[in-house]
């Protein structure tokens, strides 16, 4: 303790605390968003002669690819999130928990919800994406999407409560509605959620309930497109389709969601009584284009130059899901962690080069390392550059890659331990109903504090 | 999967689902509250010729003694909670997630918030306690207490946000108020919280912040009584006092909290600007006495007979923190997990004996196995029947006992892993600010979704 304290004292004594009002001559890099892209920028600038400020609306970096496991009670939030401060603690960085609300390109400042104005020499906007509810303002409440930790916990609460209430009710119609789960969108998130939900019901909860049969839960995956996992090769999509069906998931392709209401959805002209609807459909960029006065590309993304900067604003980079970056095939690069990370590393290199007076920076190019999606216990699909894998081999590969990509020894060890335990026992360790509980209907048990 | 499904089908086919409306001739035992006492009753009745219904307002059994570690970002909620259903899944038990709101002793029914009426032959009320805010209705919001998971997460959020906002503000007076933490009550909970908070600030957060010095955080433990840990021998209390002071905790004994306001407290006539106040003072029983029309003993507890039943109602047991049970010294037994568990096991034996036609049941007697409180890294006090321990020996003993008392292999392994990691790295793995964030003041960063 005493050692820690004196180390600290020395630290404080030598370099004066730096901030936006500091007169330091070093160029100031402001990174907005500490997701996959933003974190790589920050880390890549560790040894650059700059001052760094990282602004995020959360105090943690979230490992999105495993968030569906929080929503389905397999992992805890802290297993997939690491405080931003601790990730860049060895750098001369200032971390600010705040919401950016605008950019002034002339004055070169960003303004925040708390009323701060922060000047920049280089600005990196890596604000990610939000789920696109296609203009339906009431749908986010009716059908939460697994995007933030709070959303994932809300989904977990709704799913677990649905089983509890189905067990408590005496009304069969209501029980069926409670045991019907509709997932909208069969991309990787929808497929992974569907598989995890099916296993939660059929392998874990089946042992916990006596009055209801959790295996009778109806899990319905609705996709507007012609098949599931459209971003994967057809063969892998077909494999995933069969595997999900074997897990008991109903799949309706070429089916549009027309309405989402309190107790039902209308899909493909049919009304389905369902108390739990989970949104896994398309995403769109946040308000970055509006901040920059740019004309948004598809999905609200900001079109960028080959060096990931905004046309006419070489000091502003847009990265990750917020940016429309053309791949070699002329299509926008997909919204993958690998894309964001590579862009982040590139931007750090580009900023370092420019700060060091280098004029030309080679354009960004994406190295495709493949994509993965897990379908359930011992089953996944892997679309790798020279290899397509399915089944347990793909699943083990998926697991290894994700453990490796997780940040920090503790999270890796805890996730591995949870997975081993779940695999051996069919258990799911985080089956807790926490947070404010949505109102129950007449036939259901009310739940208070 | 197919195997699981057929096993389930067989299970459903053989015994009809039992419920409160079932005509089964077996006596119906209703247990309200699945804490330490209630869970022991339920488990102790596994082989008894009865039907069992367990009602709880949460879907999990909470290991209260480690909840302060959730509040101080060392553990996740799922590490200290296990779903009730999975704990008694091998019994013929019905689990109901609901709030009991009343008891009709004549009709022998309990009524719930969801409008259910459930008949009983034996009723076990093990509803625990709530924090006693001494009649101040606004204090629970101003000064949350570490009692439920949601409370613990609210405390975690406030503590971590206070450091973030202190880092962001330019106003020194405000920064000092944000870095002042007042803990009310120096029983085991207050002492453990104070030690954990001091370590969070001085060993963990110290590495994360550059503009503020987390070691300058003022942690003030306020106790109305003449010394801390009054339930422990004076020598152990004095040791804890010294150890806390070494950790940098200020202790004010014989000091009453007079006011708690939005941004300050008044204690011992002095106003202290503090943005975070945590309530760790006395507890009281829930509304059990009112349900039973009984005249409450101290702290709202229900006085019970030597067999833990209510006078004149031999079919109603009251256990744990809800019951006033006299110890050999004539004083009420303390609110300890060990007391609740022993009472639970006793009640299960007593009910089994009575159901089996046995007339006489020996009275309950408590075997004191000692009490423990941890003060910080490598330091604790242990008041054992023939032994008083302090320091690292007590701390190791504390750790061993708590790992042993935790339920389930997964939770034991995860908690042990987190502790080892924290001990080796001074890290705390659950430093996440989640949930709805309290409004910020002008000088602080506003935080949204």
Written overview of the protein:
The structure is a homodimer of 449-residue chains. With 449 residues, chain A is of the alpha/beta class. The first copy, chain A, has two domains: 2-57 and 98-131 and 284-355, 3-Layer(bba) Sandwich (FAD/NAD(P)-binding domain), CATH 3.50.50.60; 139-281 and 377-425, FAD/NAD(P)-binding domain (3-Layer(bba) Sandwich), CATH 3.50.50. Helices cover 33% and strands 23% of the residues of chain A. Chain A contains 13 helices and 25 strands. In chain A, the strands form eight sheets. Chain A has a six-stranded mixed β-sheet, with helices on one face. In chain A, strands 13-12-11-17 form a four-stranded parallel β-sheet. Chain A has a three-stranded antiparallel β-sheet with strand order 6-7-8. In chain A, helix 6 (149-168) runs antiparallel to helix 7. Chain A starts with a helix and ends in a 24-residue tail after the last helix. The relative contact order of chain A is 0.15. Residues 1-23 and 441-449 of chain A have low confidence and may be disordered. At the A-B interface, helix 1, strand 5, helix 6 and helix 13 of A face helix 1, strand 5, helix 6 and helix 13 of B.
């Amino acid at each position: 303790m005493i050692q820690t304290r004196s180390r600290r004292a020395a630290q404080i004594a030598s370099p004066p605390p730096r901030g936006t009002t500091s007169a330091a001559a070093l160029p100031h890099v402001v990174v907005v968003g500490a997701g996959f892209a933003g974190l790589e920028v920050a880390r890549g600038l560790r040894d650059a002669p700059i001052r760094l400020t990282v602004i995020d609306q959360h105090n943690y970096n979230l490992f999105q690819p495993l968030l569906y496991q929080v929503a389905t009670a397999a992992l805890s939030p802290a297993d997939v999130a690491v405080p931003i401060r601790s990730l860049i603690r060895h750098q001369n960085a200032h971390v600010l928990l705040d919401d950016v609300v605008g950019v002034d390109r002339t004055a070169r400042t960003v303004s925040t919800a708390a009323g701060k104005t922060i000047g920049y020499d280089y600005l990196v906007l890596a604000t990610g994406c939000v789920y696109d509810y296609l203009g339906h303002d009431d749908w986010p409440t009716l059908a939460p999407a697994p995007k933030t930790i709070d959303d994932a916990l809300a989904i977990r609460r709704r799913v677990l409560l649905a089983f509890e209430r189905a067990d408590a009710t005496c009304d069969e119609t209501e029980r069926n509605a409670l045991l019907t789960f509709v997932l909208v969108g069969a991309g990787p998130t929808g497929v992974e959620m569907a598989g995890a939900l099916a296993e939660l019901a059929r392998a874990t909860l089946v042992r916990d309930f006596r009055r209801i049969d959790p295996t009778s839960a109806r899990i319905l995956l609705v996709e507007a497109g012609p098949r599931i996992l459209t971003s994967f090769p057809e063969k892998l999509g077909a494999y995933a389709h069969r595997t999900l069906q074997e897990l008991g998931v109903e799949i309706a392709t070429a089916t549009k969601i027309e309405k989402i209401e309190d107790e039902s959805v209308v899909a493909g002209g049919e009304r389905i009584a369902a108390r739990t609807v989970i949104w896994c459909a398309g995403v769109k960029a946040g308000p970055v284009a509006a901040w920059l006065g740019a004309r948004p590309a598809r999905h609200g993304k900001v079109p960028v130059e080959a060096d990931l900067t905004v046309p006419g604003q070489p000091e502003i980079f847009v990265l990750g899901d917020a940016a429309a970056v053309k791949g070699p095939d002329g299509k926008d690069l997909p919204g993958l962690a690998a894309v964001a990370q590579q862009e982040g590393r590139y931007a750090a290199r580009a900023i370092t080069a420019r700060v060091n007076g280098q004029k030309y920076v080679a354009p960004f190019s994406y190295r495709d390392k493949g994509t993965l999606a897990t379908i359930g216990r011992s089953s996944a699909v892997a679309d790798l550059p020279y290899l397509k894998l399915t089944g347990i081999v793909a699943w083990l590969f998926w697991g290894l890659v994700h453990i490796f990509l997780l940040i920090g020894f503790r999270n890796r060890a805890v996730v591995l331990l949870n997975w081993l335990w779940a695999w051996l026992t069919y258990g799911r360790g985080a089956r807790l109903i926490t947070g404010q509980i949505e109102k129950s209907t007449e036939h259901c048990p009310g739940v208070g504090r």
